[in-house]
UniProtKB/TrEMBL annotation:
Its EC number is 2.4.2.18. Homodimer. Mg(2+) 1 binds at residues 94, 227. Residues 76-325 form the Glycosyl transferase family domain. Mg(2+) 2 binds at residues 226-227. NCBIfam families: trpD (TIGR01245). The keyword Metal-binding applies. This is Anthranilate phosphoribosyltransferase. Residues 6-67 form the Glycosyl transferase family 3 N-terminal domain.
């Protein structure tokens, strides 16, 4: 049992908040295996009931980053991912965006996991596509250079989180850990397009990333999804060179038609993998439009597009030229 956490727990029970340094110490204690399951659960629920703060998120992410297995990446690398937790069961959007970006020469260090709250996670669909998500860590920089993309399988990079796994499962509800994954990319990218399951967390997550040195970020939420949707209006909280602003975007801004969320409903890993490969081979429809829309936003974040229409045109070229499919084939080969 950690005696260091006892006074912290007493303060949290009284409704107090932690500074970033205090949160870093507390989560460092958890991730070092020095806290009991009861202490971990108590800390997580006290924060959840009161509401996690930006300093607490910042300190927790620092503790994660100090203990993660890092991957070298180009300075212009980008991450495209979501928090999960929208329970929508859609086709894999950010995974498809990864290949479209790679086809345009944008290096993507994609952080992800197997299905946790969704039916099919990024690691599940990549495995079904014949990609080895367990490639030795020391090979990942070479994979990223060759394919312009690499998948950073979260459990291998954040082994310290295993100490909180039991309490998280037993609690069975959202905790601060659901917000931390997209904030702790193992390649230390400073540019990212990230979807969030609840728009209330978009600004706190952007403020946290700003505290941690990110320079170009879009945190997005679309009609209940942790990504941009072609179903209607989307909310965005953007960070650019220290300035944070909030706005909305529509599918029409990227020149793509609207469609209901049900039009991109997915299934198991094999189903979603088949749809993703069909997309890269030229399939059209709402799935392509959704991927083009999200890629357009990612290209703005990556400083490769001036607006959504420009980004959408580039995304379409990556798909239509076969460049996105070639990126998938290269990733298969490089991870074999």
């Amino acid at each position: 049992m950690s005696t260091n956490l006892k006074p912290v727990l007493a303060r949290l029970a009284a409704g107090e908040t932690l500074t970033d340094n205090e949160a870093e110490d507390a989560f460092g204690t958890i991730m070092s295996g020095e806290a009991t399951p009861a202490q971990i659960a108590g800390l997580l629920m006290a924060m959840r009931v009161r509401g996690e703060t930006v300093p607490e998120l910042t300190g927790a992410v620092r503790a994660m980053r100090q203990r993660m297995s890092r991957v070298e990446a180009p300075p212009d690398a980008i991450d495209v991912c979501g928090t999960g937790g929208d329970n929508a069961g859609t086709l894999n959007v950010s995974t498809a965006v990864t290949f479209v970006l790679a086809g345009l020469g944008v290096p993507v260090a994609k952080h992800g996991n197997r299905a946790l709250s969704s039916r099919t996670g990024g690691a599940d669909v990549l495995t079904a596509l014949g990609i080895n998500v367990d490639v030795p860590l020391d090979r990942l920089p070479g994979v990223l250079r060759a394919a312009n993309c690499a998948f950073l399988f979260a459990p291998r990079h954040h082994a310290a989180l295993r100490h909180a796994a039991g309490p998280r499962v037993e609690l069975g509800t959202r905790t601060i850990f659901n917000l931390l994954g997209p904030l702790a990319n193992p390649a230390s990218v400073t540019r990212q397009l990230t979807g969030v399951f609840d728009p209330i967390w978009a600004r706190p997550m952007v403020e946290t990333l700003a505290n941690l040195g990110s320079t170009s970020v879009w945190l997005v939420h679309g009609q209940g999804l942790d990504e941009l949707t072609v179903a209607g209006e989307n909310s965005v909280v953007a960070l650019q060179d220290g300035t944070i602003r909030e706005f909305t975007v529509l599918p029409e801004d990227a020149g793509v038609p609207r469609a209901p969320i049900a039009a991109i409903r997915g299934g198991d890993a094999a189903t979603n993998a088949a749809a993703l490969e069909a997309l890269l081979r030229g399939a059209t429809g709402p799935y392509r439009d959704t991927v083009v829309f999200n890629t357009a936003a990612a290209l703005i974040v990556a400083h490769r597009a001036g607006d959504l229409r420009d980004g959408a045109a580039q995304a379409a070229r990556s798909l239509d030229s076969g460049a996105a499919l070639a990126a998938l084939d290269t990733l298969r080969r490089e991870t074999a």
